[in-house]
Amino acid sequence: MELLNIFIKSAFIENLALAYFLGMCSYLAVSKTVKTAFGLGLAVIFVLGITMPINWMINSWLLSETGVFGTDLTFLRFILFIAVIASMVQLVEMIVEKYSPSLYNSLGIFLPLITVNCAILGGSLFMVSNEYNFSESVAFGLGGGFGWFLAIIAIAAIREKIKYSAVPAPMRGLGMAFLLTGLMGMAFMGLMGIDPSAL
Amino acid sequence: MAEVLVEEKKSAIAFGKKERKLVTDPLNDNNPITVQVLGICSALAVTTGMKNAAVMAVAVVFVCVLANLITSVMRNAIPKQVRMIVQLVIIATLVTIVELTLKAIAFESYKQLSVFIGLIITNCIIMGRLEAFAMGNKPWESTLDGLGNGIGYGIILLIVAFFRELMGKGTLFDYKIIGATEEFLINTETSFLFGWYENNNLMVLFPSAMFVIAIVIWVHRAWNPSLVDVS
């Protein structure tokens, strides 16, 4: 039950994309069609769900004072976290290239850029600052990924619809995407502060 | 003989037309934020005040230039399969240097920026430029490219921060510009620029950054129609 609460909280109330505005670069650039957005969303869920527990293990077993080395090594946190994330993304890249070359081509440079999707490193840093335990960090990773997935699907669907509207030429495409994200973010601000365990 | 000499001279010019274009291009036609869509997250988070935006801009220029230079020097020694990890280790090292330096000389800014200094590592501008430029070009060109992109990013950051801080808090660099001051509330005789102005709290929140960047894009593309999205 506690885990379900964390899942719901990280997916909806503290949505990484629409409440913290993390991972915006790929969110804005790959949301032109629902199909590619779907692929990227799944990749993000996968990478977040895997890196979160691995980073939890690294943080609490290697880097903390109670860990193997017995000294405070938290200044190495960035480098180790990002190394884990980079290797996981490289893994995903190989898998996607093998099994779905069309998705691989349409994602282009944004597949390696999942590495620098701030939602993923940001998620790991939030996990550290929230002091989750192992199973909680798994729920947080999956929930955060799911929330990001929903957000990118939503904006991709809106952008597909808005293609047929009469938008001023300079605002077409990227400009409208920014405006829409702002409006969606304002909507999500309404959810802020809700405590799912009290429901 | 003379021609060869002239040619040699040309290539010896370290800051010719091509090099200048590398620096000026990201300021307008190829701006990292409004055209390449890179580095949005930090642009949203640190632009609540001019001071934070300025510190962030300087940090990003520093990391961007040095990361481009180092990667470009090492580019032939990096195997393709592990390139991302190598690039990230370079960036992470530089960011750790920035973080520790800020902690030592500007502790106030360091506390306010906190996580976002760490998130420079995942600032896609730096990684994006390493992938797209530094992996295939010589060190000097890469350095200039890093400088141009860093500055292009910094300019947008300062523009957005200008409007958000002015309209959200009525201040610039924490110095009161518009709106009623506390003295004004006590003695209404004290005149102040736009004393009727009430701070707009929405401008301090995240969504407003989206709106401001959308307007920046609108103005930029209206002024430079070659950037308009045709699809």
Describe the structure.
The complex is a heterodimer of chains A (199) and B (231). Chain A is built from eight helices and no strands. By secondary structure, chain A is mainly alpha-helical. The model of chain A has no long low-confidence stretch (mean pLDDT 83). Residues 1-12 of chain B have low confidence and may be disordered. Chain B has helices at 2-12, 17-24, 40-45, 50-74, 83-105, 107-113, 115-118, 124-132, 139-169, 182-186, 206-223; strands spanning 171-172, 175-176. Chain B is mostly helical and 231 residues long. The radius of gyration of chain B is 21 Å and the shape is globular. In chain B, strand 1 (171-172) and strand 2 form a beta hairpin. Chains A and B meet through helix 2, helix 4, helix 6 and helix 8 of A and helix 3, helix 5, helix 8 and helix 11 of B.
Cα radius of gyration of chain B in angstroms: 21 Å
What percentage of the residues of chain B does DSSP assign to strands (E)?
under 5%
Main pleated sheet of chain B: 2 strands, antiparallel
Total helices of chain B: the number is 11
Task: Summarize this entry quickly.
The complex is a heterodimer of chains A (199) and B (231). Chain A is mostly helical.
Salient structural properties:
heterodimer; A: 199 residues; mainly alpha; 8 helices; globular; B: 231 residues; two-stranded antiparallel sheet; 2 strands; disordered N terminus
Layout of SSEs?
The complex is a heterodimer of chains A (199) and B (231).
Chain A: H1 2-13, H2 24-29, H3 34-63, H4 77-99, H5 101-107, H6 118-129, H7 134-162, H8 174-189
Helix pairs in contact in A: 1-7, 3-4, 3-6, 3-7, 4-5, 6-7
Chain B: H1 2-12, H2 17-24, H3 40-45, H4 50-74, H5 83-105, H6 107-113, H7 115-118, H8 124-132, H9 139-169, E1 171-172, E2 175-176, H10 182-186, H11 206-223
Antiparallel strand pairs in B: 1-2
Helix pairs in contact in B: 2-9, 4-5, 4-8, 4-9, 5-6, 5-8, 9-11
